[in-house]
Amino acid sequence: MGALIRVAAITLAGAVLYFAGLVNGMVIYRPEPLGAGLVGGGIASAAAMVVVALHGDGRGDAGSRPLRRYVGVHRVAWLLASVMALVGMSWLVAAPRQHGGDWTPYHNDAIALNECAARSFLAGGDPYADLDIFTCYARLGIGADRTTPLRQGLFARDGYYPSDDELDRVWAIRSHDSAANVEFESKVSYPALSFVLIAPWVALGLDTNALYVLCLVLAMTLVLARASTGVRPFVFTGLLGAAGLAAFTVGGSVDLLYALPLVAAWLWRERCWSGIVFGIAMAAKQIAWFFAPFFFIAVGTRKGWRAALRWSAEAVAVFVVTNLPFVLADQGAWVAGVLSPVRDPMFPRGAGLIFLVTNGVIPLWPQLSYALLEGVGLAVCIAIAWRLRRTSPELGVVLPLLPLFFAYRSLFSYFFLLPMFAFAGLVRLPLGQLDAAAARDAGGLTLFALPQQGARERDAAAVPAGD
To answer: Is the pLDDT higher at 197 or at 28?
Structure first.
């Protein structure tokens, strides 16, 4: 039952990320060294689990038998997975009626600024040049606590995040003179599809958070469609059991806008249109850029390097076509916006290594040190993907996010989608056919399908021979 062990490992990694995210949400406001260690350790252990789950080619794993002495452990793992699936399901069911405990649908500046950018785009403006954060936030009814402060102007200092009182005080000053604002990130910080894709939804006056939840459901559906029939119920349980996928999407995340096309591109990367879909992901958020070399390696290994170049050219073409109008309108504003995550002087923030710094566990190093660590990590991951491109062809779907653990800005939102990407890789493996009875004997539990299959088997066994 190697296939079920892989699914259980990814599911439990998602459960670990769920609890790490809950702790992160508490510790980020009330610094605690132990809590920071738990969050960082949780992310690192979850990353290790998905890497192990995707190691190897998976050939015939569905028919392999676990050692008898491990059946009990396997059963406990699936019991936990099934319990966590109920947690994930509860988040999705509650999504239309709550905002993750928040009083507003604009949980962060990414959601807020993207919506205002979409409104500007619908009005015929250039969001990269026209958007004003104070006008935007006044319309949405939110304030300084939904911003990204910068280390300049009245916040010009090294060290840690301003307090809520500092944010409110400087916000009150700059709201009367927005032209002098240098303290709050006010640019559209993502490529053009981040707001173009949501523009129809905004035009209808709908909550964009519902769109992001819909993207999550569609991504899950694509993964299930690619899974083999026997494994599908366990993968469904696993997608829900990785409760952080539902919880942090419902809690407010724009990341599903790039994750959905990325999942589709990876699942069907042999198809000629996958490069176009991958280009949509790249034109929605910069994190998709980290996946580009891994996608190239995966396509080249399977389809040949000429195909990989064609697919890559398609992706670049989509990015250029969707962003070119804004580049031509105001090249400086577009560059300043899209490159703001790396060019603007932001405060250290995140759930990775930097979380140990902001919670006083280790000292703060020069910002360049984190960039070097991230760069070395990316190079190592690319080398691993290349070396194992034939023996572990699906590792490339999770490796791109691992270097972000060392970034100066390693937000938790970078990592909570790891289980989704891991499942997108897992269902492509030639796991073989999974026998329902053997799965139960091995301790496999699922909320879906197998109990009914078992009932049919018992009914068939009860019919006398010859009837």
So the answer is: 197
**Is the predicted pLDDT of residue 158 greater than 70, yes or no?**
yes
Question: Given this model, what pLDDT does residue 390 score?
Answer: 96
Angstrom distance (rounded) from CA 268 to CA 336: 34
Of residues 110, 96, 353, the one with CA closest to residue 255: 110
3-state SS class at 381: helix
CA distances from 252 to 26, 101, 105, 111 (A): 16, 10, 8, 8
- d(C-alpha 140, C-alpha 420), whole Å: 31
- Report the range out of 83-97, 180-194, 430-444 with the highest average pLDDT: 180-194
The token pair at 174 is 């700059």
Distance CA 198, CA 214 (A): 12
Helices (H), 273-304: 274-282, 292-303
Q: What is the rounded CA–CA span in Å between residue 399 and residue 396? A: 5
Q: Name residues whose C-beta falls within 8 Å of residue 218's C-beta, 6 or more positions apart in sequence.
A: 260
H or E stretch including 190?
Answer: none
Q: Reply yes or no on whether the pLDDT at 101 is more than 60.
A: no
> Which residues lie across from 150 on neighbouring strands?
346
Strand pairing partners for 149?
184
Q: 66 vs 61, 319, 434, CA distance in Å?
A: 10, 46, 13
Number of H helices, E strands in the chain: 23, 2
Residue 123 contacts residue 233 (beta carbons within 8 Å): no
Q: Which residues lie closer than 8 Å to 430 by C-beta, 6 or more apart?
A: 57, 58, 59, 60
Contact indicator for 279, 315 with CB cutoff of 8 Å: yes
Which two tokens mark 312? 């890559």
Residues 6+ apart with CB under 8 A from 235: 7, 223, 224, 227, 423, 426, 427
Specify the DSSP element, H or E, that contains 350: strand 349-350
DSSP state of 416: T
Residue 87, number of CB atoms within 10 A of its CB:
16
3-class SS letters over 374-415: HHHHHHHHHHHHHHCCCCCCCHHHCHHHHHHHHCCEECHHHC
DSSP 17-31: HHHHHHHHHHHTTS-
- Provide the residue count of the chain: 467
Rounded to two decimals, the pTM is: 0.93
Strands 409-410 and 349-350: parallel
Structure confidence by residue, pLDDT tens digits, 210-255: 999 999 999 999 999 999 988 899 999 999 999 999 999 998 899 9
Rounded Cα–Cα distance for residues 256 and 158 (Å) = 33
